[in-house]
Amino acid sequence: MLVYTNKNNRAIAQLCSLHRNDMKVYSTSYFKDPLTDHQFIKQWVIKLEQLNNRKYKYNECATSLGKTIVWSIKSEIIDKPALFIFPGFRTSSLFWDLDDNLQIIINNYDIYLVETNGQPTLSDGNTPDIKTQDYGNWAAEVIVQLTNKKVNIAGASFGALVCLKLSVTAPHLVGNMFLLNPGCLQSFSLSLKNLYYNLLPIIKPSEKNVRSFLANAVLYPPVHNLTAERLQLLIDYEVFALKRYVDKSQKPYAMSRQELEDVKAPVYLIVGEKDLLFPYKASVKAAQNALKNLKSVNVLQNTGHGIETYKESMNIIYKTLNQLT
């Protein structure tokens, strides 16, 4: 069962307008048949809810990029700290809970799973120029509509770029930041193996090719893997996104040293030893050289790029946050 709420009111609109006047839409991605394709996503969410025995609350935010959807997991306990999660490219933030990974965190934190605009989700397809600070401005607009507190943030791959930009544009909103296999500390790997497995499902988006991509570039079986039912959910979503979503968005880029040096928030880096897309050693080196407030680096053995689907990542975030409180 999906629960719907709408946060659009005059006060929130005024908060959003602080950034809206300067933000420009760079490109717009879209579903081929929005009504039918959105229905697929809603049914997919219901399947995940049934597997996890959990309800994801649907929150709709009005932003400079149009409608932004945020799934939240909150208990009745008031005044809990918040964790905002930003997903990777061509993924949903709900991937973070594919294997019930967030269970360890939900009793102590309010969790907000943000569906980034321009990605194949229920959020609108508008995106800003990726090399401006506007993704940070957009993320700030989302956060102020859902909480009035400073929050912890976490981002995987492309989501890490959003987190870094948010921490620069709205440092007053950011507590601690967790970057998981960031796709912005170095350029996308041009190794033949990486290009092969990434291009294969794009050229021919079949279940077989997506399964091969996931096994060789995203997960790292048998250590970093999903149960059969949950893996099928992931495959279904990726095949759907490749076939039904017309992607016009820019791809992540390697942020400059100057951009990274502007980040003041505490940063906790979590990387996978077997990340094929962004090999971990280069990411660690860039972080150590440019992030002035880098607090720790965790390298997870036998872990691929899709590190947000791995329980050990959530364990590290949970333990770190508990030590900080």
Describe what this molecule looks like in 3D:
39% of the residues lie in helices and 19% in strands. It is an alpha/beta fold and 325 residues long. The chain has a single domain (3-324), classed as Alpha/Beta hydrolase fold, catalytic domain (Rossmann fold), CATH 3.40.50. The protein is globular. The protein starts with a strand and ends with a helix.
Can you summarize this structure?
This protein is α/β, with parallel strands linked by helices and 325 residues long.
Would you spell out the secondary-structure blueprint of this structure?
Blueprint lengths: L2 E4 L3 H11 L6 E2 L1 E2 L2 H19 L4 E7 L2 E8 L8 E5 L23 E5 L11 E2 L6 H13 L4 E6 L1 H12 L4 E7 L11 H12 L3 H12 L9 H17 E2 L10 H5 L5 E6 L7 H11 L3 E7 L10 H14 L1
Parallel strand pairs: 1-4, 6-7, 6-9, 9-10, 10-12, 12-13
Antiparallel strand pairs: 2-8, 3-11, 4-5, 5-7
Number of helices: 10
**CATH hierarchy class name:** Alpha Beta
Based on helices, strands and strand pairing, what is the structural class?
Answer: alpha/beta
What characterizes the major β-sheet?
A: 9 strands, mixed
Per CATH, which architecture? 3-Layer(aba) Sandwich
Strand fraction = 15-25%
